[in-house]
Amino acid sequence: MAQDALPTEFDVIVLGTGLPESIVASACARSGLSVLHLDSNDYYGSTWASFHLKSIGEWADEQMKDSNGTDGNPTADFSHHLLPGERLELVHPARRKVIKNVQHSWHVENAPQPPAAEVTEEKTTATVGEPNDSVEQSSTAAVESPTVPQETQSAPTDAKDPQTTTVPSAETAVPRWTRDRVEKDWRRFNLDLAPKVLRARGPMVQILCQSEVSRYAEFKCVDRFLCSGDHGNLHQVPCSRAEIFQTDAIGVMDKRRLMKFLTFAL
């Protein structure tokens, strides 16, 4: 019933749901025109879309499949959908394909390495077939000898010095990032096909407000800026008054100059 009530004629037909197409469609609708907004993809945003960690892999696989020429049959018969006096005009995806040469790969290990606790357990249970005396000696040598100094073994235990009896374990080590660990937190990642930053006082903001597409868009302030150092480590770039006076990367004179620049820019 609802499908039969849809209009059959439109003033404007917009293909794609990216930012430029959405601005055009919203501006036309604001001017009183009837707009049909279509997208051949199963997601919104076209080349401006954002994906989480699972969907970005599916999108990359689909793009690589299309680049190999397996994107379906473009010569399918749609004549039964046409009304008298209508004709079909096919728009091949290759004509408007913007993103090309898509590759999807991981640069972290697929599985974590076995912890050191399991290796120690194998050493202590490897002498099960021997007599009881040899089992106790081998297990003691495997566990205590590498960690406790010789002087500590003969000296009495002092309750005031807990460092002499503390044995470091593998559990205190910082866990490494692995593919399994990243995939478990797939909701925490949001990847843009076309990363963009809009200036707060730029002309794009005025266009978004005038076309009223800002009602359907979601904006997020930039949390922080990071720069890579010589050894691959990341440093946060101070962008506020509090961050400037808290950082140790620049001197007092440079902090004052940076504060004057931010005051002038903002």
From TrEMBL:
Record InterPro entries: FAD/NAD-bd_sf, GDP_dissociation_inhibitor
Any one GO cellular component localisation term in the record: nucleus
Annotated Polar residues bias: 134-169
Molecular-function GO terms, alphabetical: GDP-dissociation inhibitor activity
Single Gene Ontology BP annotation: vesicle-mediated transport
Chain residue ranges for the region called Disordered: 103-178
Domain of life: Eukaryota
Family (UniProt): Belongs to the Rab GDI family.
PANTHER family: CHM, RAB ESCORT PROTEIN 1, RAB GDP-DISSOCIATION INHIBITOR
Full protein name: Uncharacterized protein
Organism the protein comes from: Plectus sambesii
